[in-house]
Write a structure and sequence with these properties.
heterodimer; A: Potassium Channel Kv1.1, Chain A; 8 helices; 53% helix; B: alpha/beta; 14-stranded parallel beta sheet; disordered N terminus; ubl conjugation pathway (chain A)
Chain lengths: 175, 439
């Protein structure tokens, strides 16, 4: 999918568009400075730097779906704009909170994998915080459900493990 | 001896397959680091793949503040034994070769020294970055407990080549109720190139300390209640924050261009202001401070403030200890030296006010145009306090909020009387735009 802006508009790099191709084959147009925040895209662009027309470049991101990318792109874009200004950390924190507050547990997991694959460390840190907050002082059953883990212990094995660190199981909230 | 394999190599074959399965090992450990040790350990029963993961957390914060809050002399022995058991159990399972934090905080005396010494070895051999040993008594014992002494033999082992390689990672060191000498502290200061925080409280063996060096990274230094300290020399361009509470000492301070937060005081016979107390040469650096906390002793005599200007000061705190004092208005002299002050906090411990308080109705005028917030902690509604409150309400023209908060340990009747006085003040003279908070 080609950018709708005219080809003469290449005055600054931030206005240049790059095409990202998601795991499910969709093409998404993003500003070059946003694409450069994604490590695999940055590497790909460096490797293809002799290509005269950026708009002809299609960067494959085979590990991230279009749905996840379309959540990530506006986040990274706004976050870049925020960090370009001399804003307080509190504002960035508020922005991050706003972004993560309504994430479903599934989406949180998908975004973490994507942020890790794309090397967006500031987002990964925030998502780690959110994950930890959501499993804080929860029962084992709750955490298993939250992380989508299949319990592969027999009841005897699990009881034995619990007996190995009884101090850890005192005073747990029931979800 | 520590080998160079990073922690993650040990789990390479244990690939996780659940929702976070593709996340690298260290990210999962990061998540576990954000949990308490108990929460992290509980993940061992999630599934086979999580069984050992918690053993690689890099934060070992043995926080038992919940238990500490409820200990009594009767339960103390049992609680101490539980704490020792807990720390030892975790350490025997733990497998990470490097750790970021190791924090011990419990009421333990010298009788547990063999355990404590082993913990020091455990932490240091894992190249700990933030290390804390706090043994502050949780109950007031009738006879003072004999506190743990940092062992000479540990110190000797740290001075070897291997020991030096291990302590180099230290960034933060906190010792509370640990006897440690100036020589040992200086060893850490001069051999840990990244050390940026050093807190020492209640060490009887600290007699003198020299923190001098242009290449030091130290930013935060707290020396409190080291009652045998005689001499302290500071010359450290990186220093941002300095707190000293304790007896009057021979004190030199030079070359601290970045210093901005200072807290200084002591109990009876300590540093501070009033009653013949000395502030010492730190006054020379007052002009660059942003935050200052001062211990002030007030009685019938007036307090002499040092002649100084504090144009950068934003937050001033007075810790007031008063006996038979008849007015707090002396304190406002100091306010005049802080033209851009935004917040004033008063922590008032008054054993007795003068019986001859003559509350003035006319105050000297001196506008404090930037003061927005005043907290009076320990408010009892006494005329001496009310006089200061009225002075501030009249002269702090930009005031937005005034907090009047009695000490929580006061009796219900005293607290209610204080609240009653606060309400009267609110009705009588509260200017528009000022919010009064009564706690």
């Amino acid at each position: 999918m080609a950018s709708s802006s005219s080809s003469s508009s290449c005055s600054s790099s931030s206005e240049k568009k790059i095409t990202l191709k998601s795991s499910d084959g969709e093409a998404l147009n993003v500003e070059k400075n946003v694409a450069l925040e994604f490590e695999p895209a940055k590497g790909f662009l460096e490797d293809n730097s002799e290509e005269a027309d950026d708009e002809a470049i299609v960067v494959p991101l085979p590990n991230v779906s279009a749905a996840v990318l379309s959540e990530l792109i506006p986040y990274v874009k706004q976050r870049l704009e925020l960090s370009a200004k001399p804003v307080q950390k509190k504002l960035i924190k508020a922005f991050d909170d706003q972004f993560t507050r309504h994430l479903s547990d599934d989406k949180l997991g998908e975004l973490m994998l994507a942020a890790n694959y794309l090397g967006v460390n500031y987002l990964l840190d925030v998502l780690c915080d959110v994950t930890a907050d959501r499993i804080k002082n929860k029962s084992v059953e709750y955490v298993r459900e939250f992380l989508g883990i299949q319990n592969d212990f027999t009841p005897e094995e699990e009881a034995e493990l619990r007996a190995q660190c009884p101090w850890a199981f005192e005073g747990v909230d029931q979800d | 001896m520590i080998d160079d394999n990073p922690n993650k190599v040990l789990l390479e074959d244990e690939i996780l397959e659940d929702r976070l399965s593709q996340l690298p090992f260290d990210i999962l450990v990061n998540i576990l680091n954000l949990l308490t040790l108990d929460e992290a350990a509980r993940t061992s029963v999630l599934s086979h793949k999580w069984k050992h993961l918690w053993k690689y957390t890099t934060i070992l914060d043995f926080d038992a503040s919940g238990v500490l809050m409820n200990v009594t002399e009767d339960t103390m022995e049992e609680d101490r034994n539980w704490y020792i058991y807990w720390v030892n159990e975790v350490l025997s399972s733990h497998r990470a070769l490097y750790i970021d934090e190791f924090r011990i905080n419990f009421d333990l005396d010298v009788s547990y020294e063999s355990y404590i010494t082993n913990w020091i070895y455990s932490a240091i051999s894992r190249k700990v970055k933030r290390f804390e040993l706090s043994f502050h008594p949780a109950v007031s014992w009738q006879t003072l407990p004999e506190i743990y002494t940092f062992p000479q033999v540990v110190y000797e082992s740290l001075k070897t080549d291997i020991g030096l390689a291990h302590v180099k990672s230290l960034r933060s060191l906190i010792f509370d109720s640990v006897n440690i000498t100036g020589e040992m502290l200086e060893f850490f200061i001069y051999n840990c190139p990244y050390l940026d925080q050093l807190d020492v409280a209640c060490s009887h063996n600290l007699l003198g300390l020299k923190v001098v060096g242009s290449e030091l990274k130290l930013k935060y230094l707290d020396i409190v209640f080291c009652n045998n300290l005689e001499e302290l020399e500071l010359s450290c361009p990186s220093l941002l924050s300095f707190k000293y509470f304790g007896p009057i000492i021979k004190f030199t301070i030079t070359n601290v261009p970045q210093l901005q937060d200072v807290s200084i005081g002591g109990g009876v016979g300590g540093h501070g202001l009033g009653n013949g107390r000395v502030l010492g040469p730190i006054v020379n650096y007052f002009c660059q401070l942003k935050n200052l906390e001062l211990f002030v002793e007030l009685n019938e005599e007036s307090v002499q403030f040092p002649k100084c200007e504090l144009p950068a000061l934003r937050h001033l705190t007075f810790q007031i200890c008063a006996r038979r004092c008849s007015s707090f208005l002396d304190l406002t002299c100091m306010l005049k030296s802080c033209p851009f002050l935004q917040k004033l906090t008063l922590k008032m411990q008054v054993s007795q006010y003068s019986s001859e308080v003559r509350s003035r109705h006319q105050f000297p005028k001196h506008f404090h145009r930037h003061l927005k917030e005043v907290d009076m902690i320990g408010f009892s509604g006494n005329p001496v306090e009310l006089e200061l409150a009225r002075y501030l309400l009249e002269n702090a023209t930009a005031l937005e909020q005034l907090l009047l908060e009695p000490w929580v340990f006061e009796s219900e009747a005293t607290i209610e009387a204080a609240r009653e006085e606060a309400r009267k003040l609110e009705e009588a003279i509260l200017p528009p735009g000022v919010k009064l908070y009564i706690h």
